[in-house]
Amino acid sequence: MTDDAYLFLLDDASAPLGVAPAAVGGLACLETPAVRAWLDAHGTTAASPHLRLLPPEETAGVPEGAERLPVPLSDEELNRVRHRLAPEPLARIEEDLLAYRDCADGRDNLIGRALAAGVPPHRVVELTGVDPATVTAAAGR
């Protein structure tokens, strides 16, 4: 396995392999001189339906003989690529998980503010559904 995702060109744009970078939106690697030169050398653009992208764990799926280029992706870009590759039912569940993560990001800060304002720890547990140890840990920060 490699740590890089791969851009590659498909002969048949209707093949259900990888994700079109244009469908993922705003990938920094598409603006690098190396990727631009590679696209130019192959007479294509980032919007081409023949251009596809696979995350590192799936690069073995790049067809034998396909023109390919390893590209680094940020964690956020990689998440978007993986999300686009997931079948629809899984994609919806992934969206729910991401929404939960976004809600939970400020949890400890919120719990700390509630405790500082005088909300009793048992009430924080009741309101948030987190276990008492999490409330205790947030109180110590």
Secondary structure: elements and pairs:
Layout: E1 5-9, H1 21-24, H2 33-41, E2 51-54, E3 68-71, H3 75-85, H4 88-104, H5 107-117, H6 121-128, H7 132-139
Antiparallel strand pairs: 1-2, 1-3
Overview of this structure, please?
- The protein has 141 residues and is mainly alpha-helical.
- The protein has 2 domains: 5-100, no CATH class; 106-139.
- Helices cover 48% and strands 9% of the residues.
- It has helices at 21-24, 33-41, 75-85, 88-104, 107-117, 121-128, 132-139, and strands at residues 5-9, 51-54, 68-71.
- It has a 3-stranded antiparallel β-sheet, with helices on one face.
- The mean pLDDT is 85.
- It comes from Streptomyces cinereospinus.
- InterPro entries: DUF6003.
- This is DUF6003 family protein.
Distance between the termini: 40 Å
Give the total of domains. Answer: 2
Q: State the oligomer.
A: single chain
Overall pLDDT level = 85
Radius of gyration: 22 Å
Number of helices: 7
Strand content: 5-15%
Can you list the strand order of the major beta sheet? 2-1-3
What percent of residues adopt helix (DSSP H or I)? 40-55%
Structural class estimated from helices and strands: mainly alpha
- The helix/strand order is EHHEEHHHHH
Instruction: Find the count of extended strands (DSSP E, 2+ residues).
Output: 3
Can you summarize the main beta sheet? 3 strands, antiparallel
Label the overall shape: elongated
Low-confidence stretches: none
Protein name: DUF6003 family protein
InterPro entries: DUF6003
